[in-house]
Amino acid sequence: MNFENFIRNIPDFPIKGIQFKDITTLLKDSEAFPMAVDYMYAPFRTEEITKIVGIESRGFIFGAALAYKLNVGFVPVRKPGKLPAATLSEEYQLEYGKDSLEIHKDAINSLDRVLIVDDLLATGGTAAATCALIKRLEGTIVGLTFLIELTQLKGREKLADYEVHSLIQYEI
Amino acid sequence: MNFENFIRNIPDFPIKGIQFKDITTLLKDSEAFPMAVDYMYAPFRTEEITKIVGIESRGFIFGAALAYKLNVGFVPVRKPGKLPAATLSEEYQLEYGKDSLEIHKDAINSLDRVLIVDDLLATGGTAAATCALIKRLEGTIVGLTFLIELTQLKGREKLADYEVHSLIQYEI
Predict the structure, then answer these.
(1) Spatial separation of the C-alpha atoms in residues B26 and B107, rounded to whole Å
(2) What is the DSSP letter of A102?
(3) In this structure, what CATH number is given to the domain that contains residue B81?
(4) For A24-53, how does the pLDDT look when each residue is reduced to its tens digit (9 = 90+)?
(5) Cβ of B28 and A74 within 8 Å?
(6) Chain-wide mean pLDDT for chain A?
(7) What average pLDDT does this structure show over B3-7?
(8) CB atoms within 10 A of CB A157
(9) Which chain A residue's Cα is nearest to B36?
(10) Model confidence pLDDT, tens digit, residues B110-158
């Protein structure tokens, strides 16, 4: 299956000059969505995994499906103020300014082997912040898997310590 | 399995007086999460379903897992401005003021048989708005399924035309 055929390009969204990669055309397809989940997992199939971490909010879609497939727990990494119990927080750089991500302190422990899931690897800021959160909780990071990678933004360089997989690459 | 044992009560979140039902303690459990997805689906197992609609953002978690299980497409209903292509929008009432939800116009068609998934049925505002969006796209609503229902808020009354299922009920 050529997954790229299921991605819709939206020019000038959310701002002029950006070619937005719309994944909803893949999600709504009864063959492409489950198969994308399977292929995002495939490189890690020999690894023992105890938790899937999904990054808000499109990472929840692929991450939760994969957690269900593997019969393991799902852990959401969220924007500030969304998680109700005690959290750790990690900042990351935006083009202008900063933002941060949070995880529940009791979501991961030192016995966990974690696969991180998101729809898009761009600059790698959110992914690297998520890795930092998991390391602070002493979890082992098995790897990171993405549906789409924008290779020119070099997000992989921020994740050099880890196994990184993506299903579709765009050189834009 | 008593799913209620996996829900954590957080007093005074997000504001004083609210007893927030934290589902992350269920999500991270390798048995409770997949089984909750299975049980949320169980009452609809004899229905033909072609699409799962999940409501942003915790509805993505249960909805995507269920779409994966059933080998059907997943359709996100999102807060305004998040979906990049042509959308329909539907307003709903908040305690003070209004908000709205959006769906892609091409996400559902008249042949679709849709199950709507979310984590929480409270006043039913977002669920009823989601039903309206699906009806405007001429999809058939098979039913709605929730992890938690706050029965005193009577959300079910707004959904009287549909089959509604919840796994855990709180009378608060």
Answers:
(1) 30
(2) E
(3) 3.40.50.2020
(4) 999 999 999 999 999 999 999 999 999 999
(5) yes
(6) 97
(7) 98
(8) 10
(9) A68
(10) 999 999 999 999 999 999 999 999 999 999 999 999 999 999 999 999 9
What's chain B's average pLDDT?
97
| Confidence tier at B85 by pLDDT (50, 70, 90) | very high
Q: Are the Cβ atoms of A85 and B8 closer than 8 angstroms?
A: yes
Compute the nearest-CA separation of B14 from chain A (Å): 7
Interchain CB contacts (distance < 8 Å): A and B: 111
* B14, B24, B107: residue with CB nearest A28: B107
% of residues, chain B, pLDDT over 90: 97
For the stretch A112-123, what's the b/e string if a residue is b when 16 or more beta carbons lie within 10 angstroms of its beta carbon? bbbbbbbbbbbb
**Contact residues, chain B, for A26 at CB < 8 Å:** none
Handedness of CA A13, B107, B125, B25 (dihedral sign): negative
Burial string for B49-78 (b: 16+ CB within 10 Å, else e) reads: bbbbbbbbbbbbbbbbbbbbbbebbbbbbb
Q: Which residues in chain A are contacts of B18 at CB distance < 8 A?
A: none
Q: How far is B17 from chain A (nearest CA, A)?
A: 14
Q: How far apart are the first and last CA of chain B?
A: 22
For the question of an ipTM over 0.85, the answer is yes
Task: Order the strands of the A164-170 sheet from edge to edge.
Answer: A73-77, A51-55, A113-121, A140-150, A164-170
Chain A CB contacts of B31 below 8 Å:
71
Question: Residues of B with CB below 8 A from A24's CB?
Answer: 75-76, 83, 85, 104, 107
User: Quick one: residue B111, left, alpha or beta (phi over 0 = left, psi -120 to 50 = alpha)?
Assistant: alpha
Give the total number of structural domains in chain B. 1
Kindly report, residue by residue over A46-91, the tens digit of the pLDDT. 999 999 999 999 999 999 999 999 999 999 999 999 999 999 999 9
CA distance A110 to A108: 7
Structural domain of B84: 3-170
CA–chain centroid gap for A13, Å, is: 21
